[in-house]
Queue: 3 jobs
Job 1
Amino acid sequence: MRLVIVTGMSGAGKTTALKTLEDMGFYCADNLPVLLIEKFAELVMNGQSEKQDIALGVDVRSGEELPNLEIIIRKWRENKYPFSILFLDSSDEVLIKRFKETRRSHPLSRNGRVEKGIELEREKLAFLKKEADQVIDTSRLLTKELRHELENLYSEADGRSSMFITVVSFGFKYGIPADADLVFDVRFLPNPYYVEELRFHTGTEQAVQDYVMQGGTGEEFLKKLNDLLEFVIPKYEQEGKTQLVIAIGCTGGRHRSVTIAGEVFKRLTESGRYEIRLEHRDAGKDGGK
């Protein structure tokens, strides 16, 4: 279990950082009152809360309570509490540009110039930057690059990806899944629907699988599909995508798509890199084709 205080300059990417950590399994809370932060963190670190990584967002919105955080941090350091501080920074020029582009006011310059708000914010957060275990300058970082930096810093998985993949079988007669990212049509494979003793069984059963995979076409398709997925999944990760839905379809979603989806799930699972879920959306519906 880890506790990370996420802080930094307004407009430097704290919201993106918290969302990224949340995707990585952290429980994230933003802008808690400072005194509640102390109580909450102590409960967590004393084992009185659920065993889960925690990320707490703190910034100048804490107002007059913010200086109290310096005292709390000093106390935690002395007591050797296992926590770290992530500080997100950016140049004044970039911060000003970001505020102008989003047309949002700086929290310390509601009725004044953004420059003055940034200057005052730097003064108020100076102690946090000094105490930070990690400082990331986002001036030249794209959102996907910041996410990659955070994954490198906080991912505990050994060689594992943060991508969550859902493999879903479906029937075209019932429509393509609305959330599908990749759709593959396997209606070219042998169809068990036309075999009376297999018609009302599904692709989760060995007899149906054997029929679908006969002749070698199914195996050849799986090899080519596997090559494609090995190529495109890392590309999606580089773009900052954290969830991918791979949809495999046949006519009724009962035989061929279920068989192939099961094999895709098995092969991706064997890679050991991804968290994967398998869903047969239409397998329990009528016999279809």
Job 2
Amino acid sequence: MAAYTAADVKSLREKTGAGMLDCKNALVEAEGDFDKAVEILRVKGLKGVTKREGRDASNGLVAAHVGGGVGVLVEVNCETDFVAKGERFQELAQQVLQQAVDTKSTDAEALLASDVGGKTVQDVLDEANATIGEKIVVRRVARVEGPFVASYLHRTSADLPPQIGVLVALDSEATEAGKDVAMHAAAMSPTYLSREDVPADVVEKERRVAEATSREEGKPEAALPRIVEGRVNGFFKDNVLLEQAFAKDPKQTVAQVLKSAGANATAFARFRVGA
């Protein structure tokens, strides 16, 4: 007669995030002792942590927290969408997010080394890695501050947690415009806030490419400066948030929309899982 019930297996899965077969085997080995089964899963799982280091963790979620003029964004990755959908993984991501808020972390390395309950965040991830059986990593952390911070989380699939997250810091409160711009950034994938934020070497590269392309197309020599400048400006319009055509009204730029609302964006962050 089995030393455990189906309810025991379900409870063990919910607590640890481990697979059904692993839970069954752990309960058999523990002769039905729930706490011992949890320990068995951890011990066996930790042995495989190193083996999982080389695996690709390209699934997961983006989580955000906004409060007191501060926005924090984290990307936590796992290997499969099955785990990403799980309650255990999502609870872990929220724990990581709260730690990032509490420690004012601005990068993943500092967050992973921070202390939570006598352990580092990396220790907590390793333990989760052990029970869930997948590689789990904190890939990125962002923190923006301002008089007003808007956030937006987007699900690319209804059965998955948010895969895209955006924070936008404004110099004055403009709730509707801030949310609209955050949604715009989620859809339009800007890389920079303003053209002043684009590194000089990136601009120079775009200028070289524009000139070489224009020459290849046989454009008149006298017209090259104007054509090159136009193409570089086109790069800014594609990649700079404030210069992009606003998704809801392409006749306006994002900067114009914010100006109409009496605000300006001072910082933004955008994460897409795996990108």
Job 3
Amino acid sequence: MSIPELLTPNFLSGCSTFSSAQELFDKSGFTINSPSDFRAIPDEEWDAYISKNTTYDSWSDMLKMAGSEWARNQLKI
């Protein structure tokens, strides 16, 4: 599953001012044109960005909740 599939506009609107995963990446100040670009970002810096711009303390926390929401939507729970 790709990040844009996980971080849906509905999910992002509930935890940030971003309307898409692409906007989240574009406004980060980091150059992210490929998966390797994303992996090169220091975890601490990315977590600080997520903490400052969303309701989550870390990228990991955000992904866990997005995954839970995605699963509930798939199972129609």
